[in-house]
Amino acid sequence: MKPAAFCLLGPTASGKSRLALQLAERLPLEIVSVDSGQVYRGMDVGTAKPSAEERRRVPHHLLDLIDPTGSYSAGRFRDDAIAAIEGIRARGRIALLVGGTMLYYRALAHGIAALPAADRALRAEIDEQARSVGWPALHAQLARVDPATARRLAPNDAQRIERALEVYRASGRTISSFHCAPSAPLPFALLSFALVPADRARLHARIAARFDRMLAGGLIEEVQELRHQYALHAGLPSVRCVGYRQVWGYLEGAYDRAALRDKALAATRQLAKRQLTWLRSLPEVETLDADAPALEIGLAARLRATAR
To answer: What is the residue-wise DSSP string for 262-289?
Structure first.
């Protein structure tokens, strides 16, 4: 029987990080981030990156890997996550993957073929079309050639629509066909859970409270410092992260602070909706009630028994 690693998924603001830290008080855990924003250095407040004190208490992996001017792929995540998990197992500890970037999880659990490299000329062409006709029109274009991917994406999900069209134009293949391609089998069994609030209104309230804490904690100032430190522009994946994109628009003078908050909350709710849609498509993932009392006690017992 293969040794086990574990994964805790869920929509944004569902309490994954808090539960992971509670589990670490009961088990010899190390945490592997499954978060496409936390790979960027300096993007701490808006990605809810674990604090220095939390990282001292519990080892975390796959944080602060690249500058905000760089890019990071699902394929690289798969390689990095496997290496991190193997290292954790070699130390006799339990690996717990935690996050909400479902594309990363799917790449790890289901495999992914090597996607075509980024093509700046194609991206510039797609961006020009978007400025002319809008992202919803390009989403409709994507739906004609890759309906499976289009169904997963919101009509204004510029980053993912652009990448899907770029892959199709560069290779003649849909990005979903690459995602379904087999990869080398994992050297461990992966047992996955999803932390899902039963009450959507409660999740939305958590999203609002967390974003307000981010604003109070210096999110706007963080983006100002990143703009000063790096040669950023609105087309970068880092700047397109939810929260950062809306702060960028505010700093560009496109709207006021109240509109910044409204736009960020709407975008975060849409992100949570997409994450929940992804989770429903993953039958191997067991759903847990995020509001269940003493959830960490029962889950810790299961992890302890399975990890033996």
So the answer is: HHHHHHHHHHHHHHHHHHHT-TTSEEEE
Structure tokens at 221: 């100032």
Degrees, nearest 5: CA angle 69-236-173: 115
Closest CA to 158 of 256, 72, 270: 270
Integer Cα distance of 110 and 98 in angstroms: 17
Give the model's confidence band at 84: pLDDT under 50 very low, under 70 low, under 90 confident, else very high.
Answer: very high
CATH class given for the domain over 120-179: mainly alpha
Give the number of other Cβ atoms within 10 Å of residue 44's Cβ: 20
Phi/psi class of residue 92: alpha, beta or left (left: φ > 0; alpha: ψ in -120 to 50)? left
**Assigned CATH for 4-112+183-307:** 3.40.50.300
pLDDT 10s digits, 48-63: 999 999 999 999 999 9
Q: Where does the chain hold its CATH 1.10.20.140 domain(s)?
A: 120-179
User: In this structure, which amino acid lies at residue 92?
Assistant: G
142: left (phi over 0), alpha (psi -120 to 50) or beta: alpha
For 213, other C-beta atoms within 10 Å of its C-beta total: 12
